[in-house]
Amino acid sequence: MNVNELLRKNVRNMAPYSSARSLNSSSEMVLLDANENPFATRGRYPDPSQTALRKALANFYNVDCRNVLAGNGSDELIDLLMRAFTEPRQSNIIIPQPTYGMYEVLANIQNCNIRKVLLNVDFMLDADRILSVTDSSSRIIFICSPNNPSGNEFSVGEIEKVLKSFSGIVVLDQAYADFSSAQPWRNRISEFPNLVVLQTFSKAWGLASLRVGYMFANQDIVDVLMRIKMPYNLNSVTTGLVIEQLQKSYLVQSWIERICLERQLIVDALQNLSIVECVYPSDANFILVKFANSQLVFKRLQQRGIIVRNRSNELLCDNCLRISIGSPNENKLVLAVLKAFEIECLSNNNEEK
Ligand SMILES: *Cc1c(COP(=O)(O)O)cnc(C)c1O
Lower CB density within 10 Å: C or N end of the chain? Predict the structure, then answer.
């Protein structure tokens, strides 16, 4: 794969913004190049090359820092990939259905053609079906594993097949990898030059308010995104807090264990409810649940002050709600409301008879 050939033409030819400081930075120098306030404690622009954060991530995940890049949420990285590798109106990208909605939104902003391909009814990925809709204008295939909203991890073999057979970029969104026991894909970028793995601080790491996502990819891909990203896409306060959190991974690990434990309790309880048709297996911090009548359940939860994600209009998701795993008290409340609703439904049925 030649990254240069996949690039949007104007991106290939453009000169990136260069700040005087990215070339030779040192806090000991007299910095008079960026019109900053010399008196203030937060008066300096942050490091455009994210050196400290990339080193911290590389250290934590045991990869080379040239293969890591951070964004203002992984959403920014998805946006950058779209801008770098698709030509408006000409290129197409492939999005399995159902999945995370931002791929489509960001593709539409770039006026990129979208080819949707159904997952299997059990939400597993069929590599051949994905590959069958690709052509010479296909630039990116998005694969979200564990998948949002279904929660399942795709099989390694199918993903490998896509990676090997497709000559464009394969974006593997692993926002929920922290909740899964499967091998993470970030260690395999040297095997697959077209692989981009996305992760985020927004879910297991508990820092959604800060907006930081990160990616693992080969250096030529990282370099391209580095050229087109906003020079100061991460602020220094956020960067500092994220590096601190990396040092507290034991805390995050204990959160993950508690969330997975709660997930099991909820799954078991839901499976005993007659208003529940199916609880799909989850490797993430949410579960997709098929109800006999999701509209009524959604409304009842809302009346009780509980907001869940209605996915019933997504392909393959008839009557499905996506429920995040909350605190033990929140989860108990959800179960209590559902239990009460079930009793009500049963007695209504009896009255009708
Ligand atoms: C939540 C989520 C993201 C967004 O991550 P940010 O880093 O908060 O932008 C990306 N992909 C998937 C599949 C998600 O569910």
Answer: C
